[in-house]
Amino acid sequence: MPLYQSALAKDIFKDQIIIVTGGGSGIGRCTAHELASLGAQVILTGRTEEKLQQVKQEIIEDGGKASYRVCDNRDEEKVKQTVSSIVEEFGQINGLVNNAGGQFPAFLETMSANAFDIVIRNNLLGTFLMMREVFNQSMVKTGGSIVNMTIDMWSGLPSMGHSGAARAGIDNLTKTSALEWARAGVRINAVAPGWVMASGLDFYKDGMKAMIPTVSSKIPLKRMATESEVSALMCFLLSPAASFITGMNVRIDGGASLVSPFFPLIDHEKSKPFEAFHRDGIPNVIKEMNQSKL
What we know:
The chain has 294 residues and is α/β, with parallel strands linked by helices. The chain has helices at residues 26-37, 49-61, 76-90, 113-142, 161-181, 206-211, 227-238, 284-293; strands at residues 17-21, 41-46, 65-70, 95-98, 144-149, 186-193, 249-252.
C-alpha cells in the first residue's frame, strides 16, 4: 500500500508527541495519518473507541506510531485525567490538533436552548478545556503548538447559528491564548475550512444533503476541499516552519468567503485538488454524486 504523500519534510515531527482530538474519522483521521507519516507519536482522542482503535491500527500498519484515549472533551475531569495520563506516559506534549466538534442543521427561531448548548459545549467548551489542560500540564514548561478548528463563518452561518457562535468563540479564544501564552513559547493558530469532502457530509439529511451537489458552483475554485488540503495546513502550522506565526485563523475555502454578487463566478476545471491521503476518505454522498455524472 502507498504511504501518505505529505508536502512537508520527512521526520519533521520525529519524536514529537501530538494529540489529535476527534481522530477517529474525517479530517482528524487524515491529519493523524499525516502527522504519523512525518514521525510523530500520535495520540488519538474521541468518544467512540472502535473508531479510534481502527485509526490506530491503520497508522501502525503504515509504519507509524499511535495510541488513543477515549475522552469526551466536554467533561472537565475526563479531559484533565486524559491529558495527565498522556504526560505521565510520554513526558510532555508538543502539539495539539483541536479537531473534535460537530453540528447539525437548525434555524435559530426553532432552536432549543439544549440544542444550542450541546453545540457550544461540543465545539467551544471542549476546545478550551483541551487547550487549558495541555498548556497547564505540559506546554507552560516545554512550549508547543496548538491548532484549533473553526469554520467559514464570516458572513454568518444560516441554519447553523449555534456552530457559528461556537466557532466565532474559538476564533477569539485562539487570538487571546496566543497573546497570553506567547511567554511560554506556545503558538496557537486556527484553520477555517469551507466545504470539505469529509465523512461529516454523510450525516446531513434532506435539504442539506440536496444542497451538496450545488456547492461547487458557488466557490471560485469550483470544487470542495480534500481532507488532505486541510491537514496540510494544520501540519504546517504545527511545524517549525511556522515558528513566527501565532494568533492567526487561516481560511481554506477556495475563495468562497470572497464571493461578491457584483462579480460573477465563471465555470472552469482549472483547480486541481491536493490528494495526499492514501486511504479512502471520500464520503458516500460525494461518491454517489460522482456516479450520477457518469
